[in-house]
Design a protein that fits this description.
single chain, about 230 residues, mainly alpha, Heme Oxygenase, Chain A, about 70% helix, globular
């Protein structure tokens, strides 16, 4: 792997844009039902309570992946990302805390999010940990990059949906507004590391493309699974 590229690889960016257009994540049932009012509040909250386990876990496999990158300049974007996840040293602004604040403002009883997460979320977390530890670094970078990219748009839509349903005022919504902008930067940090290797040879190109597809599959499948399980109660 070379240093993070200073020049965007337009072929890679077109491939990513094509995947996102094909997936059309903002029209998935989870978001569509939030927009049209068919997502019952208690069902939505139940899925969000369990999604918290994914929020809390996300930086851990990223740390594993960072440890496998050979040079400091390759590790630095991931370290910066993890620093953001932890509120840049102020844990009150860390992503776990801001998500818990959002749940509390939505009426979730304190401590409810500490329950054992649904198997759908555990499967997602286990997949990220496994690929970060055992798959190729390029695959891992592609997986995390596309997840950050997708979550940026999804976060914006979730924040808007919560306000549109009248569950909170816009200024009361935490976590999602931050991710709507910050995760674009995080995604770029991963993509910069892929710009150079992409196109070097067919095998490397396929490796990166498969990582992007895998990341999209894992993340969008998580929302599909949560939506199907929305009526489940512990």
């Amino acid at each position: 792997m070379g240093a993070p590229s200073l020049v965007r690889n337009l072929k890679l960016r077109r491939y990513i844009a094509g995947l996102k257009a094909e997936w059309n994540a903002l029209d998935m049932p989870y978001l569509r039902s939030l927009r049209d009012g068919s997502f019952e509040r208690e069902d939505f909250l139940e899925t969000q309570v369990h999604f918290f386990a994914a929020v809390a876990h996300f930086s851990r496999p990223m740390a594993i992946l960072a440890s496998r990158l050979p040079r400091p300049d390759q590790r630095l974007p991931l370290v910066e990302n993890m620093f953001d996840e932890h509120g840049r040293g102020n844990l009150g602004h860390g992503h776990e805390r801001t998500f818990l604040v959002l749940l509390e403002r939505l009426g979730v009883v304190v401590g409810r999010a500490s329950r054992t997460p649904w198997p759908e979320v555990r499967a997602f977390n286990a997949a990220l940990t496994g690929l970060a530890a055992f798959d190729t670094p390029l695959t891992g970078l592609a997986v995390f990059g596309i997840i950050e990219d997708l979550f940026s748009g999804i976060s914006l839509e979730l924040g808007r949906g919560i306000v549109a349903r009248g569950w909170l005022e816009a200024e009361e919504v935490t976590h999602y507004p931050t991710h709507a902008t910050l995760d674009e930067e995080h995604a770029e940090g991963f993509y910069r590391q892929l710009d150079g290797p992409y196109g070097e040879d067919p095998r490397t190109e396929e490796e990166i493309e498969q990582g992007l597809v895998l990341g999209g599959h894992l993340f969008l499948r998580l929302y599909e699974d949560l939506y199907r399980a929305r009526g489940r109660r512990d």
